[in-house]
Every structure is written in structure tokens, then in C-alpha cells.
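Entry 14. Structure prediction run on the chain below.
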Amino acid sequence: MNAKYCTNCILSLLQPTKVPKTRTDRVEELLRQNHPPLDVELPAFCEVVETTPAALEALDLKIAQARELLENLLSARQHAQSHFEDAKALLHPMRSIPNELLAKIFSHCIVKAHNHEDFLDALDPRAAPWLLSGVCRHWRNLAISLPHLWTHLLLDF
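Output returned:
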């Protein structure tokens, strides 16, 4: 039932149904006791017994339509959210930084050591240049193409 709903159909789903919200005091009284209803009350109770199955069926149909509408709305919202996030990611300023500027930033991430003890472990994946090359394919290719990032590696065995 993948239907499009017009405004009137949606509004019809929102129309209140003519079902009493609460029991009357008389119904409460009769349910607490084991006495039969009065003869004047019988036609009203018989009408409820005769008409309620159709009313329940109509309510079930409205519920099914409302659920379908809700599922369609949730799906449309999820698609809109996905398109929004895609567009935001594609417009992110990091995508427009020139390689020359990224290379300069990468260079500043490398620790310049003055003696042997100042060097970091060259195989530590949490330090540059390894960390930089693990961000994305573009950064990996750029980092690998910059020899000055890889010239001062200390391998301490």
C-alpha cells in the first residue's frame, strides 16, 4: 500500500471517531454487579454490539494508513537527512585546501629533533607522518609524495 495521500485523506485520518472515551456511570454500575440492563437500555447496548465491529474495522484501516504514512514520512526524512549530510561533507572547507598548503601544514607536524633522545618512535602510528597518511586517500598520497616528511626517521632496536 505505497499510496500518496492528498490533504483531505490525511485530514480524514485525523478526524476523531465517534467512540465514547469513557464508560458512563451506568455502565460502570452494571459491570460491578451481575444485574441485567434495564429494558430501555437494551437497544443502546445492542446497537453498540452491532455497530462496533465495523467501527473497529474502520479504525484498524485508519491505523494501517497512518502507520504507512508515518513510515513514508520517516523514510523521506531519512533520505533528506542523508542528502543534507552528503552536501555538508562535500562543501567542507578542508576539501578546498590546496596541496601546497596541506604540505606546509604536514611539515609543521613533524617534530624537529636536536639530539637522539628527542626523536619519537618512527613506527608509532599515532605520530606524523603515519598519522597524516591514515586520514584519507588524498592525504596518504600527498604525505607519501613529500620526501621531507620521511627523511628523519629513527628506528631504535
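The chain has a mean pLDDT of 85.
Filed with the rest of this week's runs.
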